[in-house]
From TrEMBL:
Entry's Gene Ontology molecular function annotations: ATP binding; tagatose-6-phosphate kinase activity
Top-level taxonomic group: Bacteria
EC number of this enzyme: 2.7.1.144
Organism: Streptococcus suis
Name used for this protein in its record: Tagatose-6-phosphate kinase
GO biological process: D-tagatose 6-phosphate catabolic process; lactose metabolic process
Location of the Carbohydrate kinase PfkB domain: 12-282
Length: 306
């Protein structure tokens, strides 16, 4: 079973606007609502690629929380919910279609009490079994201790923990050596301050000579990705495409990594698929991927062992 951890969900509302202007009413040409929070995006990537044995663990409350559960039911994700009296937040993503610019308005999340945190933690722990996969994606919400992820890694060594986070939580989890880490070049620099994060050669040097981890992927934006899987090293580059909305691309990338790890795929397969699925998402205004887009880009991904 794959457990996707989403303590700070949101209603993600994407609004398409031809031009964003000040001091006048803006009339979107299209508006769509989605269950938000990185784990919901990872779940979409899993589901669209045939994976069904996953559960999202989250905290929901109020009218927005109930609406998210309705939207999620349409998506077919298994959900484990800790109920909360506070209303779940809304995040508005404005896409200016004339320029491709994206403006983000993210509401503050609910106040995490000690009781809510304990309920949430216990729910996760009661669900874990040996051989399960535990996925932490995104930053921890305010009120969670910096070593929250690290505690799970150390307490449940029989569970494969996958981490995509940042800041103090990343530094703590990094020391505990999770089964797989996916971060970007700037987050790697947060761990190794002397690193030239714009240099793929310098990043590859860290992977080959410094990092003790078995499995780590570093995304570098337009420069592609570098990966260490076991004692093998890879460079992955997607074709250049015009981007419409890249906001969830990293989550979709993670989803295909989780799929590959859960199914025991060769890195030659899951690293290429992850890059292609993330890039295909960027072709769309909404957090979705068309199968034809994915297949077309997959054929053009450059993959090499280095």
């Amino acid at each position: 079973m794959i457990h996707l951890i989403c303590p700070n969900p949101a209603l993600d509302r994407t609004l398409l606007v031809e031009k964003i202007e000040k001091n006048i009413p803006l009339r979107p040409t299209e508006v769509r609502d989605y269950p938000g929070g990185k784990s919901f995006n990872v779940a979409y990537a899993l589901r669209e690629n045939g994976v069904t044995d996953y559960t999202i663990h989250t905290i929901l409350g109020g009218q927005i929380g109930r609406y998210i559960q309705e939207l999620n039911a349409d998506g077919g994700n298994a959900l484990r919910v800790v109920e909360n009296s506070q209303n779940t937040r809304t995040c508005n993503i404005y896409v200016e279609t004339s320029t491709g610019d994206v403006v983000l308005f993210y509401e503050k999340g609910f106040e995490l009490t000690e009781d809510l945190l304990n309920q949430f933690t216990q729910q996760i722990e009661n669900s874990l079994q040996a051989g399960d996969i535990l996925v932490f994606s995104g930053s921890l919400m305010k009120g969670m201790p910096d070593d929250y992820i690290q505690r799970f890694i150390e307490k449940y060594p029989e569970v494969l923990t996958i981490v995509d986070t940042s800041g103090p939580a990343l530094r703590a989890a990094y020391q505990a050596r999770p089964a797989l880490i996916k971060i970007n070049n700037e987050e790697l620099k947060d761990i190794y301050p002397e690193l030239d994060e714009e240099s793929p050669e310098a990043i590859l040097g860290i992977l080959k000579e410094v990092t003790p981890h078995e499995n780590i992927i570093i995304t570098m934006g337009d420069k592609g990705s570098l990966a260490k899987i076991g004692q093998r090293f890879f460079r992955i580059q997607s074709p250049k495409k015009e981007t419409r909305n890249p906001i969830v691309a990293g989550d979709f990338y993670l989803g295909l990594l989780v799929k590959g790890i859960s199914q025991g795929q060769a890195p030659e397969i899951f690293l290429k698929e992850a890059a292609a699925f993330a890039t295909a998402n960027c072709l769309n205004y909404f957090p979705e991927v068309e199968a034809e887009q994915f297949e077309e880009i997959l054929d053009k991904v450059v993959f090499e062992e280095v």
